[in-house]
Design a protein that fits this description.
alpha/beta; 11-stranded mixed β-sheet
Length: 258
């Protein structure tokens, strides 16, 4: 027994939270979240980093995320304040206590973990793919077919990492700072493809992210055999927010109404 306090001392904060979340799920459907008082940077206001000013398309992941966070905030009597930021290094904003929650669709890569913030449980997962116009699907099958053609990606995203790793010599890579800028270039015919993702629920169902005029090809995992999961990044100074959002994720399938 004398070594027991020492064991507790070395259990990581993240492990404790994970264990607590798991215990909540086992309590006969009784949620732990309602007993938690969430303390945010500005009392009563949930400050959330997003990448798009006013998403309107049902195919846009940022709209799915906004709806999800909005429902979470309403259930916890919080008012959302959206902060639009570039995607690249957006995950650092929670570490710096600039926002309570980063909702820019961050994948939980180890190099994105920083002191002062914690990843939530995953709410969706992705596989890498290339977006092309459906009329071009007879011309392209994999990244190898794009030698001499232009493929775009957003700076700092997993898609850019993947593109830089896989593209053979001769593929012309163009990067932008945002998805709106990237899609505008694609729609104008300035890009032959976009490196992005196919989105899946945690139950392995594809989440529709395009209409029939677009086709996704060359599906693969960023890291073979490893699921690329998206998370929220929570400021450690926003007390009880991590536990509350994890409880919400366990009870509420993402995305809402799709």
């Amino acid at each position: 027994l004398s070594s027991y306090p020492m064991f507790i001392q070395y259990v990581s904060r993240k492990c404790v939270r994970t264990i607590a979340s798991t215990l909540c799920l086992l309590l006969s459907g009784v949620s732990c979240a309602p007993d938690l008082k969430i303390e945010t940077i500005e009392p009563g206001i949930l400050t959330v980093a997003v990448t798009t000013e006013s998403p309107s398309s049902d195919y846009d992941p940022q709209l799915w995320i906004r709806r999800y966070v909005k429902q979470f905030s309403e259930k916890n009597q919080l008012t959302v304040s959206w902060t639009v930021v570039p995607f690249n290094e957006s995950w650092l904003l929670a570490s710096k206590n600039k926002v309570d929650l980063v909702a820019t669709n961050v994948a939980s890569f180890p190099d994105r973990a920083h002191p002062g913030a914690t990843f939530s449980e995953p709410f969706l997962y992705e596989r890498r793919a290339l977006r092309i116009n459906t009329e071009d699907q007879n011309n392209f099958e994999t990244i190898e077919d794009f030698v001499g053609n232009k493929v775009g990606a957003v700076t700092g995203m997993a898609a850019e990492r993947d593109l830089l790793k896989r593209a053979p010599t001769g593929v012309i890579i163009q990067v932008t700072s945002s998805f709106p800028e990237l899609y505008e270039a694609f729609e104008k015919g300035e890009l032959d493809a976009i490196a992005e993702a196919e989105y899946y629920t945690l139950n392995n169902t594809v989440i529709p992210s395009h209409d029939k005029n677009v086709t996704l090809i060359d599906h693969h995992d960023l890291i073979p055999g490893q699921r690329e999961e998206s998370v929220f990044v929570i400021s450690n100074d926003s007390r009880n927010l991590l536990e509350a959002i994890n409880s919400f994720i366990h009870k509420t399938e993402f995305p809402l109404g799709v």
